[in-house]
Amino acid sequence: TDLSHIRNFSIIAHIDHGKSTLADRLIHLCGGLSDREMQAQVLDNMDIERERGITIKSQTVRLKYTAKNGETYQLNLMDTPGHVDFAYEVSRSLAACEGSLLVVDSTQGVEAQTLANVYQAIENDHEIIPVLNKADLPAAEPDRIQQQIEDVIGIDASGAVLVSAKTGLNCEEVLESIVTTLPAPTGNKDNPLQALIVDSWYDPYLGVMILVRIVDGSLKRGMKVSFMNTETDHLIDQVGCFSPKMEKLAELNPGEVGYFTAAIKSVADAAVGDTVTETKKPASEPLDGFKPSTPVVWCGLFPVDAADFEDLREALGKLHLNDASFHFEPESSAALGFGFRCGFLGLLHLEIIQERLEREYDLDLITTSPSVVYRMHMNDGEVITLHNPADMPDVTKIDRIEEPWIKATIMVPDEYLGPVLQLCTDRRGEQMELTYVGSRAMAVYRLPLNEIVFDFYDRLKSCSRGYASFDYEVDEYREGDLVRIQILVNAEPVDALAFMAHRSQSEGRGRQVCSRLKDLIPRQLFKIPIQAAIGGKVIARETISAMRKDVTAKCYGGDISRKKKLLEKQKKGKKKMRQFGKVEIPQTAFIAALKMG
Ligand code: GDP
Ligand code: MG
């Protein structure tokens, strides 16, 4: 296809505004799917995605559309991952397109995620087509939402298309609008090859598959290519596209989007954002914007049953095959034994991996307190990155500590604004902006990431009755008065319970954890002191008093079988405990103790 007949676009939307439904509808209209296949949402693959309504891995589809002018066009629909932790992957998908469909539910209006995505699209110079969805619903207010898009986002919404992705109403107009209003890509087939890696994933039959957008040159089977940022060479063995079924092609040309395979073993070797060029005729420079993915949230994952350690290692390895953005390395903890220190792009990413391990691999896990990555500037000038509070260096050798901050956008109906602002203040937030759009407020805050990793989403949802929407991007590192709080049980520090906090909050948090542990750790035969300490200084203390009698004591003289039963029950209970020094700590205590209240 010549360049003037190609259009590359993505769909951006807040969760549940109808992105997947519209995508399926467009595929159906272009003959890519039968009625029966339409039943299932094709673009969302995994169970978890479907249940949670988020897209984790993107899928891209090439459509053939014959427009009203009689010409046939190649439309490449790039699906983007649908949640906040994958901002970089979203930005690369957007960089591979010339325009976006901005889908807004016309019964709901603009939300935080709509905004975050649309700003990225604008940064990538996209032409934007507003699509007002769910026109079939009586509560739809297309005029108001159209005005809102102009007011809040500041783009011209006069060309907005009012559709129902569900019934198909007006969806053909969306395709027309793509052809008439989005620009065609540019590029030159005779220039050296430059292709942007937009996504990569592991296919059990074909190995690693790489999705690319060709900028210049062409990509063919048998060609030797180099990845310019990671500096590796590969031989292309298959080239093709998805329509949405996989189709082999002879070559991919400028402006086009498609996949290739090259006997690559791990997705980590095909980094999103890297540039593919031809080894014997390389481009002079890679494309802009390459950023190796770095985990921002870390936690320990330990098998409940120590015998599952090897299974856990294998499961983590398998998940890593398909998700290079998640990291893991062996770790051992005095309290929890052998496990792994794992790094994630964000909290939701952590939850998804944890859920998949439990669901798909049937593993019972203990998760330790999530921690962000701190930068320790040492007195001798060395900078240490710390992602496990247990590894905190000697404080007398630390000059200063920096922590990551985020920029958060929160949208909330007016009546819940008060508690939301209070929550942000409690979490050390700094207000950047507060504006109103009708009866909704938009607050932009800077917040330390460490204050949101635990339960910020939950709190935000509960204090706004589920109406607040939230989006964030990692902003910058800033110095903070941070301390490590150690928890001592029976005078011994429990490394898996150590956590970092701002000094101003350390006492309150320390006290809270001690009092939680007091309730979580069962009484034992002796008195157990529980302390929170910074360095050698105890800042909070609780005591679990001793159990008065042996459990069997109460059946003195009673029948022996009852006594046996009690002992057995006690033994079973023990399985879910971890021996620590003389004290047994139930597994559930590790995470429960650290939840902020
Ligand atoms: P996504 O999260 O943006 O991908 O949203 P989905 O496409 O999964 O849609 C979310 C929900 O809205 C689903 O229950 C859809 O059936 C429903 N939905 C999508 N489009 C329409 C529409 O035009 N009208 C109505 N009534 N419901 C819709
Ligand atoms: Mg979806």
From TrEMBL:
PROSITE patterns registered for this protein in UniProt: G_TR_1, G_TR_2
GO MF terms, alphabetically ordered: GTP binding; GTPase activity; guanosine tetraphosphate binding; ribosome binding; translation elongation factor activity
Annotated CDD domains: EF4_II, EF4_III, LepA, lepA_C
Keyword check for Methyltransferase: no
Keyword Heme: no
One cellular-component annotation, GO: plasma membrane
Ligand binding (GTP): D16, H17, G18, K19, S20, T21, N133, K134, A135, D136
Reaction(s) the record says it catalyses: GTP + H2O = GDP + phosphate + H(+)
Locations listed in the record: Cell membrane
Segments forming domain Tr-type G: 4-186
Xref: Pfam families: EFG_C, GTP_EFTU, GTP_EFTU_D2, LepA_C
InterPro entries recorded: EF-4, EFG_III/V, EFG_V-like, EFTu-like_2, G_TR_CS, LepA_C_sf, LepA_CTD, LepA_IV
EC number of this enzyme: 3.6.5.n1
This protein's UniProt keywords: Cell membrane, GTP-binding, Hydrolase, Membrane, Nucleotide-binding, Protein biosynthesis
Matching PANTHER family: TRANSLATION FACTOR GUF1 HOMOLOG, CHLOROPLASTIC (PTHR43512:SF4), TRANSLATION FACTOR GUF1-RELATED (PTHR43512)
Family according to the record: Belongs to the GTP-binding elongation factor family. LepA subfamily.
Main function: Required for accurate and efficient protein synthesis under certain stress conditions. May act as a fidelity factor of the translation reaction, by catalyzing a one-codon backward translocation of tRNAs on improperly translocated ribosomes. Back-translocation proceeds from a post-translocation (POST) complex to a pre-translocation (PRE) complex, thus giving elongation factor G a second chance to translocate the tRNAs correctly. Binds to ribosomes in a GTP-dependent manner.
The protein's name: Elongation factor 4
UniProt source species: Candidatus Terasakiella magnetica
